[in-house]
Request: fold
Amino acid sequence: MSPRLTFLATILLLVAACGGGDDTGADASTLPESDTTTTAGGADTTTTAVGDDEEAMDGVHTASTELGEILVDPHGFTLYIFTDDTNGDSTCYDVCADLWPPVSGETSVSTGLDSTIFGTTTRTDGSEQLTVNGMPLYLYIPDANPGDTTGQDFGGVWFVVDGNGSVIGGPEASTATTEPTDDRDY
Reply:
């Protein structure tokens, strides 16, 4: 199989594995470039979408989008929660995490946000993932530009959050009431 067909087949598998079913219109040509960084200890890497001319802000902050003021990473890329995560633990691994990379627990938070609502959770590989109100935070690879929100309501389980950590357009961000929506194993 040609490398291009292999790449496209991989993207289709990623979409299907992570709550696919809606038509986001994303294709391989809209995927952003990635910047891989190694966290303390050199053991884990986090892939974060970064534009060539994007300048990083001071940590996670809010940005104005068509959905309102939402949390974004230091480069302005939208952050999401996965409602299948329960009790503050991430359930997005392997193929799912390839499409929805976890936000490193070492990511700083802007002084303009209430730092008490942010924390971390330990992933199965031992790395730390940033949380808001106990819910793990993720990026979405098909968001090609800062402020894109193409992952919003993806599969009915992925949602953006505002600066207070409240889910926008979806279920409450409470770890006590969040239940898995299906039998997906990721």
In short: The beta strands are 34-38, 45-49, 61-65, 68-72, 80-82, 118-122, 128-132, 135-136, 158-160. Residues 5 and 11 are 10 Å apart (CA to CA). Residues 1-16, 21-54, 173-182 have pLDDT under 50 and may be disordered. DSSP finds two helices and nine strands in the chain.
